[in-house]
Amino acid sequence: MRFHMGLVFMETEHVVDLCKAADQLGYYGVLIPDHIFYPQELKSTYLYSSKGDGKPGWGPDTNWPDPWCVVSACSTVTSRIHFTTGVYVAPARDLFTVAKLVSTAAFLSNDRVHLGIAAGWCEEEFIATGQDFATRGKRLAEMVPALRNLFAGGWAEFHGRYYDFDPVTINPVPRQPVPIYLGGDTDVAMKRAVTIGDGWVGAGPYSVDQARTHLGRIRAHLDEARRSGTAGGAAADPGAEFPIYLGISTRPDIDVFRQFADEGVTDFICAPWLSARVGDPSDLDGLLKARIAQCERFANDILDKVRD
Q1: pLDDT tens for each residue of 253-299
Q2: Which of 83, 124, 169, 303 has the most CB atoms at less than 10 Å from its CB?
Q3: Alpha-carbon span 93 to 170, nearest angstrom
Q4: Number of structural domains the chain divides into
Q5: Residue 261 in 3-state DSSP?
Q6: What end-to-end distance do the CA atoms of the chain give, in Å?
């Protein structure tokens, strides 16, 4: 049972200090969100809209620091926490840019990077970066094995429909394989996760009932993939761990976490800092202290019990 502190919607000024606190308090890792920009005219439909109107629950002023800048900054002031992107919109970038960024970050962090990726939903980002939106899922499916080849070091080549290159080598490369997790809770996304991925990252946060439903679905896909022998990641080995990340929107309750752990969840996404309050919202120093205090309270109430 591992706990990752989510950084989504956090002011960029607080990211490094909260990562340091997570490292000192015993969190296993942090979950780093990703978006390139917010278009003034947003026409794309957000699939996870809480209001059902297709609009994201954030505005143009929300902070979305680049994940690999976050890893580079935070890995130098921490020694234990792992960094999972939750999730990186990889097919909105070209393959070699993704490979170079992830490989360097993994090397400099002493192999503490876990690459969580998904197909994405914001067409405007793809148009701006020159990547085809319509083929993003198929390109993502090819990107995973291509990245594994590049991360392995030495001469790497790949010949697919969307990515086709003769032997090249990139340096530096990770000392250990970078775990590649797939995100999204559609059936297509879940099937992709268990057939080519090393784990699954749930979008969340979900209600307890929603979390249990999605957990049942991903386990059904896992069973099917293992029966058919089509899985290309950790799922190909029935004995290998297949990390399942879930964020559950409930009050911190060790019994609830233990129940989900017994049902197959390995990694929980939490954000205790979100409940911190100060009298003056502009008092960022006071807000930071309050947030660290909330993270410490969660560590005392939950993490210590897990360790016991």
Answers
A1: 899 999 999 999 999 999 999 999 988 888 999 999 999 999 999 99
A2: 83
A3: 17
A4: 1
A5: helix
A6: 12
